[in-house]
């Protein structure tokens, strides 16, 4: 499948006004996407758990106008006009305009809010951009009722990807692969697909507690971070390793080998940070409390024969992953011992979710 598949080919029946609201989730990568080429093509395949509680809710009001050559929109975040977010969204519209020509026919008023605190250090680009993409696809479906559910989801992920790579994994759930991979049927660099094989029950309703170690703005934007992989001495090996890890995790998810899951997922997280530490310029995005938490998790795992593990985004916060059967004990461990390493003792309990919801 190529990009031509996502061009609008039929005549559209324009309506005067329409409003859609979508709730789309955040996601946490198990095998990480770090490194891309233009236009938003990943250097390796990645896989993530879709989250349930961390999400964005976005409403877009579309008002028909004379067709122009600029995309007109207003943006409100948590009820307040937010012009500082506009350039990123304007760039997104510029990247998708050939696939969504109808955005020139409407004035759009975008209202967005997150379920997680804005300054939590939780990346909101995945849920934020997938929500806009999903609203656009609702409009496209109203203008052309022949679209199938499958096409709508694919194109929503395709559009979201053009806004933010990881957003392509925030349309469906519970596990989504983005990036062409020989072992994952249907996988593509252009959009995310649901993990196509039967997943072992131990990975059902997997838990993710997000420990908010540092709620500040990101030190390194993801665009800058991805670009640092261009002249990185270990880049090619890293991309090969990530694809090999995807083969391995695909087997693990099917056979339920939780011990292998733990070591693969933690190694991926540390490798992501190792790439940042060995780029030029270099960065350390972990904080002392990130390391405290990691050490406490390792101690707890050994002492309790537990399957708790951690993963990291491009920041200091720690995602603690554990099977549902350990929920009671691990939640207590987090509350009693790990929360002291979080800013204002703040953490968010989440679990695996099933993707975008129409409101
Ligand atoms: C470390 O999707 O935020 O979270 O495509 O530039 O928007 P852009 O990057 P982004 O990168 C996410 C990187 C990561 C790993 C991952 O989610 O796979």
How would you characterize the overall build of this protein?
The protein is of the alpha+beta class and 359 residues long. It folds into two domains: 3-197, 2-Layer Sandwich (Ribosomal Protein S5, domain 2); 205-351, Alpha-Beta Plaits (2-Layer Sandwich). It is built from eight helices and 14 strands. The chain has helices spanning 86-96, 125-143, 149-163, 222-227, 235-255, 258-277, 288-304, 327-338, and strands spanning 17-31, 36-37, 41-42, 46-64, 72-77, 80-81, 106-114, 175-178, 192-194, 207-211, 309-312, 318-322, 347-351, 357-358. The strands form three sheets. Strands 1, 4, 5, 6, 7, 8, 9 and 14 form an eight-stranded mixed sheet that branches. A hairpin with a 3-residue loop joins strand 2 and strand 3. It starts with 16 loop residues before the first strand and ends with a strand. Bound molecules: ligand DP6. Ligand DP6 binds next to helix 4. Residues 29, 32-34, 40, 46, 123, 125, 164-166, 222-223, 226, 272, 313-314 line the site of ligand DP6.
**Low-pLDDT sequence parts:** none
Structural domains: how many: 2
- Specify the CATH architecture of the largest domain: 2-Layer Sandwich
Radius of gyration using CA atoms only = 20 Å
Instruction: Give the C-level CATH assignment of the largest domain.
Output: Alpha Beta
Rough shape? globular
What composes the largest sheet?
8 strands, mixed
CATH topology of the largest domain: Ribosomal Protein S5, domain 2
Instruction: Note the run of SSEs as H and E.
Output: EEEEEEHEHHEEEHHHHEEHEE
Strand content: 15-25%
Number of strands: 14
Which ligands are bound? ligand DP6
Number of helices: 8
Class by helix and strand content?
Answer: alpha+beta
Average predicted local confidence, pLDDT: 95
Looking at the chains present, what oligomeric state does this protein adopt? single chain
End-to-end span in angstroms? Answer: 31 Å
């Amino acid at each position: 499948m190529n990009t031509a598949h996502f061009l609008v080919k039929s005549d559209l029946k324009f309506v005067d006004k329409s409003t859609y609201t979508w709730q789309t989730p955040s996601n946490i990568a198990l095998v990480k996407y770090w490194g891309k080429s233009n236009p938003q093509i990943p250097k390796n395949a990645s896989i993530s758990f879709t989250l349930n509680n961390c999400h964005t809710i976005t409403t877009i009001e579309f008002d028909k106008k004379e067709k122009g050559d600029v995309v007109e929109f207003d943006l409100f975040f948590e009820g307040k006009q937010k012009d500082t977010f506009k350039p990123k969204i304007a760039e997104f519209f510029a990247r998708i305009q050939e696939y969504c020509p109808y955005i020139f026919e409407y004035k759009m008023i975008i209202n967005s809010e997150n379920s997680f605190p804005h300054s939590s250090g939780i990346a909101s680009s995945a849920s934020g951009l997938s929500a806009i993409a999903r609203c656009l696809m609702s409009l496209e479906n109203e203008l052309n009722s022949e679209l199938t559910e499958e096409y709508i989801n694919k194109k929503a992920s395709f559009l979201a990807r053009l806004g933010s790579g990881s957003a392509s994994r925030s349309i469906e759930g519970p596990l989504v692969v983005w990036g062409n991979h020989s072992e994952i049927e249907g996988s593509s660099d252009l959009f995310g697909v649901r993990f196509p094989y039967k997943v072992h029950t131990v990975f059902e309703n997997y838990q993710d507690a997000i420990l908010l170690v540092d709620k500040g703005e990101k030190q390194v934007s993801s665009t800058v971070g991805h670009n640092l992989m261009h002249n990185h001495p270990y880049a090619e090996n890293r991309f090969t390793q990530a694809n090999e890890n995807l083969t391995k995790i695909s087997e693990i998810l099917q056979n339920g080998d939780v011990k292998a899951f733990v070591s693969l997922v933690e190694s991926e997280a540390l490798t992501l940070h190792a790439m940042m530490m060995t780029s030029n310029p270099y960065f350390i995005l972990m904080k002392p409390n990130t390391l405290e938490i990691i050490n406490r998790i390792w101690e707890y795992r050994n002492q309790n024969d537990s399957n708790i593990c951690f993963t990291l985004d491009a920041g200091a916060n720690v995602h603690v992953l554990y099977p549902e059967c350990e929920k009671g004990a691990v939640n207590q461990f987090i509350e009693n011992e790990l929360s002291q390493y979080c800013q204002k003792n703040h953490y968010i309990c989440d679990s695996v979710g099933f993707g975008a919801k129409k409101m």
